[in-house]
Amino acid sequence: MIERKQSNALYEKAKQYLPGGVNSPVRAFRSVNGSPIFMEKGAGSHIWDADGNEYIDFCCSWGPLILGHAEPSVLNKVSGVMANGTSFGAPSKYESQLAQMIVDNHRYLEKIRFVNSGTEATMSAIRLARGYTGKNKVIKFEGCYHGHVDSLMVKAGSGLATLGTSTSAGIPESYIKETIVLPLNDMGAIDQAIEKYGDDIACIIIEPVPANNGLLLQDKAFLQFLRKRCSDSGILLFFDEVISGFRVSFEGASGYYGIKPDLLAFGKIIGGGFPVGAYGASVEIMDHVAPDGPVYQAGTLSGNPVAMAAGIAQLEQCLKPGFYEALEAKTSALVKQVQAHTDAKGYPFHMFHIGSIFWMSFSNKNRVQTADAIDPNSGERFKVFFDHLLENGVYVGPSSYEVGFVSAAHTQDDLNKAAKVMMAALDRAYA
What we know:
alpha/beta, Aspartate Aminotransferase, domain 1, Aspartate Aminotransferase, domain 2, seven-stranded mixed sheet, four-stranded mixed sheet
């Protein structure tokens, strides 16, 4: 067993001051065995915990660290900027530099507004959609997560095209009534909802690569259908690319599939792992945001120079020719090794991937496109799998519903070792 003495001590102390001892629920390890592991250091593709255990990291801070931990060009840029101050509550040149880098290299963006998280980005963009259209309701999809925004913490109701129900305490019923939750990959349900509520639907929000509840890869035809229905009905199409943005390509899923959304949201990958998010759209829509328009949104630390500098340094690397092709090739090679092993063994297991994102599904389905298609018992096998990974120096997110990420820092040796550990872990999980 790996040593967890220091992590356990830190957890006991944390529980005295933090709800559950953590600041984000999945970190509490409730979906796996044992108590949380407290991390102390990261370098490249590796991380070290408080007890000195070393791991090959496929969590990558839940995706943003596409270059790996403590990447030298990011650290150098940030250090130079921080030496002159960390925050001013006033504009700095780094905001427009990062904005220009993103807009000039994204065919579907004309203006962007920086915020402090993916949740804040989706919340602000929903307000903008309502302010721009003068409509109130939002369609979202079961299995897609858009941050802990009150109106989006909603699951499906009892039937198609019905209003949803809350997934969290503390959300007023009045908020929920403005959200329609539909199953993914169901064109008929969308038609039905638009027919019933179309005159009051501001936007349809979707993760074009749903990656918060497994990796529920959608057919391009379904996304194209959403684009057409929105265009025909005067509804804004909102792609939440907090995970997929700058991960599957520089232009995210919208560029990958060649589909233009009306609104886009991004997460911490644009800040090199620092707290940041953004939403963007056409000039026409973004001109409704204050101070140019009537849709108010503000933030004291929005566009702070540290996060902007880190984002500039990271995205400069992402723009290099062949960057995304190399990441996809590495990820594909890892997946093929593991999948070949499980196929030979006959395990009911499938490893999905797109770009540098992967997900391990403990079932024999070669397509999982909806949340209810995930085996509810897969968590038990995942616990055994996860324990073996930790014991042998490989770290992934501590839940069977979480995806993994390959970074530019992962070497072929890292991937070969991780594949062997994953294969042995699966042998144990299916023993």
